[in-house]
Amino acid sequence: MEEKNKSIGKAVNRIDGILKITGKATYATDYPIKNMAFAVIFKSTIASGTIVNLDTTSAEQANGVLAVITHKNAPRLNEKGGIRGGALLQSPEILFYGQHIGVVVAETFEQARHAAHLIKVDYQKKEGKTDFEKLATSAGAPRGKELADLIRGDALGMLDTSAVKLEEVYETPIEHHHPMEPHSTIAVWEGDKVVLYNGSQIINGAQAAAAETLNLKPEQVRIVSPFIGGGFGSKGGQWANLILTAVAAKVVSRPVKLALTRQQMFNSVGLRQQNIQRISLGASKDGKLISLVHETTTQTAIDSEFLEPCGDCSKVMYEVPNALISYKVAPMHMMLPTYTRGPGKSTGSFALESAMDELAYKLQMDPIELRIKNEPQKDPSNGKPWSSRKTVECLREGAKAFGWANRKVVPGSNRVGDDLIGYGVACGTYPARQRDSSAVIKLTKSGENVFAIVEIAASDLGTGTNTILAQTAADGLGIPLVHVTVKLGDSDLPPAAGSVGSVGAASFANAVNDACTKITDELLARSAKQFFIRPTAYQLIVSENIKNYQTRVDAKAPKEAEQYSAHSFNANFAEVRVNALTGMVKVTRFLAVTGAGKILNPKTARSQIIGGNVWGIGMALSEESVMDPRWGNFATRSFGDYHVPANLDVGKLDAIFINEEDKIPNKMGVKGIGEVGIVGVAAAIANAIFNATGKRIRKLPITPDKLI
Amino acid sequence: MRPFKYTGANSPSDALKLLIKNPNARFLAGGTNLIDLMKEDVERPDELIDLTRLDSTSFSKISFGVNTAGVSLGATGKNTDAAHHPEIRQNFPILTKAILAGASAQIRNMATNGGNLLQRTRCSYFYDTAMACNKRSPGSGCAAMEGINRMHAIFGWSENCVAVYPSDMAVALSALDARIKVMQADGNVRSIPIHDFHRLPGDHPEKDNNLNRTELITSIEIPTNKFAAHSAYVKVRDRNSYAFALVSVAAGLVLEGNKILSAHIAMGGVAHKPWRALKAEALLKGKIASTANFTAAAQAEMTEAKPLSHNKFKVALGRNTIVSALEIALRGAESPI
Fold first, then answer.
1. How far apart are CA B263 and CA A676, in angstroms?
2. Which residues of A touch B240 (CB under 8 A)?
3. Are A136 and A664 in contact, with CB atoms under 8 Å apart?
4. Element containing residue B50 per DSSP (H, E)
């Protein structure tokens, strides 16, 4: 196929864009199913204890109410079936504030919501573990093996003898994913099978967890999720609301819709945990790192452990012979934390990259030069060669594009009126992986045209998966983009990995690409003709006059990928203006330079990177879920209190991709961009604020009170 | 949200009659706060009497001239219309800036001038029916007093309530010495100075203001002022739009050369009502307009602040924000909206 006719690598518009902007894309609750009933969840108002009395009488008698389901009458479920965060109405025990304690099902949403207010609950309260500040001091080692201490050399000993030392504590608060589409489900039972319309980042994972929990076989559960209104990790695992919808539908023998409210989202579907990170750096006078200690203290649910790996960036970012990376965790009566965009890397890079900036000032070195000086030639955590690493190029090209040379070195010295202006830089990284995925391609000849249907149980979070898979198939088959139909988001389709951990594009696109190769091979083998140049599937179908043909592939990552360390890398540049009197910060410019292998679609890729940047701005400046330590409830309980960035908070954003050919992690050379876009962003902004004001803020978010 | 009856009122007096008939009825104007509170089960009316259908000119329109000697904002007029009215932009720019500093464009398009005055605190414990709140449920206690009170009051709070009043518009109205015109059940009209309209919490935090239940706001009367060219509204908040104030300041300076004939300063986000900075105003009267004098006056105003555990920063921030607003007013430049 001629290069100019290729679709991959071009800034193609989303193939589902029109559907979305005209409201025709069907999200989970958009299915017009007949005879639907509506469910509303109600929640505990204590963090720890037991329900001793639950009076549902008036709720049951309220207009339109079909059922009130609580631990007293809920069907028995398998609590170890893979649903995260418990709250499946299996016992009167309360383990966190806002745990689901029941579901009201009614003819209308309003009737169900009203009835939920009529329920009276008496508790036997127990003293809850809800004060992280106190519990952090007695936090212990995590149970999970993957977070065992990383020990290289003698980090503590070498720290003592280093010429230049730095030891600081960096804190990040609880954050919430808050996708635009709150978690919502429609459940429809057909005999002993249930169809769950539900936004799921991992279609087959949701199917398996729902089946196990409901004591069904996987083939009895179908997940339908062609469109997802964002997830950011919160729709990666599945939570009780999915199961409770199925339960409600079973109880009332009707289809049931259950959508969480924005307020309920704060304690229903996971969160990013609060982290206290102590970073110690030891360096020589000329800026060579000698020792790095990164100790994270964090929190988890009382009955289940999840830790985001804050030390991950510290493992791979810099050449440092002595390192100690460790974790401590305090179990609390709180919602189970979970994967949240750039898990561990976004928060960990805030600590590491702030510390590197502090070290640069201590050494009187340019922070870019300090990073380049400590650029590792191979992965320092395991000694494997990089499949590719373009950190230096990201820094150099970014510095040029951003005008880094205009930065005033002395903090607080760039003032215009009441505004202090500052520049900051920070790097980031995220692993590149391909996961097992299968795909089917079905070809149909119609006249001189060949139409393709691509089938894969992939998910599209809104990032453009549909589009890149159509591009991949169009190029792989030699047909125009408009002749490709992508079917994804359905567990009836060939099983696939999830849109999580930046594995989506690599896993799905390689599966589709392999399927294209396989279908071409098979058609070629059937043909009696001789070809001098390998023909496309299109040419073969037409020349052999084949009406229909299909094939399936089960794609896996290349074996040799394991011999290498494969990551995306970036460098982030921020310009801020800080009002000297009021402490209000505006990010006036932000540039992310990313080396992420092959960029399948520069338009959707840019959107994903700047989307990560925007959350990074929120992380740096405004997002914080505040838990009241007395009761374990959130004092921030709506978008009025939980401040995601608004338009005025976001200045000029720019994304540059470094040209990177790397076929080691997978055949298509795709590294993934979903997570890396947020990694390093908060640090770049915090570093810019220091450059602007001379104030080093080590506790996010950097609200005006911290700068006056 | 509990089931409720929806009733349309045909005239202000009709609205009052309907309200008197049902002790659990409430007026509905833009609904941008009341409906949220009903969804949260904080407000529980069983009837809403819709005022937005009233077509009486004075009730929904903006008028200037003889009777008002300034501007009169009809109670059911929309916030957006008030903010963008050319004469208000020209002669009452702090009102424009204050309104535009609040909420979002969509909310301002729905929100009414009268309703804005009556919006309730955004204290999260008030919104959360599982929490103790004397304002929502008198006698239940105040969860914010020892709780997460970063957003709360530093002036005029009581042991019963530390909530702040959230309106931006009212802060400008305070600096402008507006009066609130209300109609009573018998058809009589009274006019309440903005300073006496809202209350400090005292022993009755459940009462936000001195409006009687059977009274209806008909208009907001704003007298002419001499500081339109030297005024500012500065709002400090956790994000650049769509957030309530940590501290906000409306300031106007009447100048003769660089001498301050009078200063007009009101603060938001610090008390249960718009906080008129009388002390600072008194100190600035007759003084030279200078950063040093601004700072001294601002400092003096903050000396009586009684911060809570999480909002000590509001003392310094209040001082800085007063100074910032006065500096902008002096320059006559546009304040950041």
1. 52
2. 584, 586, 646, 648-649
3. no
4. strand B47-50
Locate the domains of chain B by residue range: 5-53, 57-118+165-223, 228-331
Q: What is the bridge-based pairing of β-strands B25-28 and A650-657?
A: unpaired
A675 annotated active-site = yes
Q: A625-639 burial, b if ≥16 CB within 10 A, otherwise e?
A: bbbbbebbbbbbbbe
- Domains located in chain A, CATH noted: 3-25+434-556 (3.30.365.10), 31-126+182-230+235-267 (3.30.365.10), 351-432+564-706 (3.30.365.10)
The distance from CA A98 to its chain's CA centroid, rounded to whole angstroms, is 23
Count Cβ atoms below 10 Å from residue B24 Cβ, excluding itself: 11
Q: Say whether B144 sits in a helix, a strand or coil.
A: coil
Provide the token pair at A189: 């039972």
Whether A418 and B244 lie within 8 Å, measured CB to CB = no
Starting at the earlier edge strand, list the strands of the sheet with A49-55.
A93-94, A49-55, A120-125
Contact residues for A517 (Cβ-Cβ < 8 A; gap 6+): A476
Neighbour-count burial for A54-74, b at 16+ CB within 10 Å, e otherwise: bebeebeebebbbbbbbbeeb
Asked if B246's CB is within 8 angstroms of A646's CB, the reply is: no
Digit-coded pLDDT (tens) for A598-609: 999 999 999 999
| A114 inside 8 A of chain B by CB | yes
Measured between CA atoms, the residue of chain B closest to residue A636 is B124
Are A584 and B240 inside 8 Å of each other by CB? Answer: yes
This model's pTM is above 0.95: yes
CA distances to A80, B31, B214, B327 from B26, in Å: 49, 11, 10, 43
Shortest distance between the Cα of B182 and any Cα of chain A, in A, equals 31
For residue A661, give both structure tokens: 């050919």
| CA gap B311, B308 in Å, rounded | 5
Determine the Cα–Cα distance for residues A595 and A368; give it in Å rounded to an integer: 17
- Smallest CA–CA separation between B132 and chain A, in Å? 12
Asked if omega into A701 is within 30° of 0 (cis), the reply is yes
Chunked mean pLDDT (size 10), chain B, 337 residues: 93 93 97 96 97 76 70 95 94 96 96 97 97 98 98 98 98 98 94 98 98 95 95 97 97 97 98 98 98 98 98 98 98 61
CA–chain centroid gap for A447, Å, is 44
How far apart CA B318 and CA B299 sit, in angstroms, is 9
pLDDT digit string, tens, across residues A665-688: 999 999 999 999 999 999 999 999
> Nearest CB to B147: which of A635, A637, A708?
A635
Beta-carbon separation of A581 and B122 below 8 A: no
What is the distance between the alpha carbons of residues B10 and B234, in angstroms, rounded to a whole number? 39
CATH architecture of the domain covering B57-118+165-223: 2-Layer Sandwich (3.30)
A640–B122 C-beta distance less than 8 A? yes
Residue B226: what residue type?
Answer: K
ipTM, interface predicted TM-score of the complex: 0.96
The two three-digit tokens of residue A708, written as one number: 């006056």
How far, in Å, CA of B250 to CA of A78, rounded? Answer: 60
**Spatial separation of the C-alpha atoms in residues A282 and A165, rounded to whole Å:** 5
Q: Which residues of A touch B337 (CB under 8 A)?
A: none
Does domain B228-331 fall under CATH 1.20.1300.10? My reply is no
Topology (CATH level 3) of domain B5-53: 3.30.43
SS3 A180: coil
DSSP-assigned beta bridge partners for residue B216: B183
Kindly calculate the radius of gyration of chain B based on its CA atoms and give it in whole angstroms: 19
Q: Most distant CA pair in chain B: distance in Å? A: 61
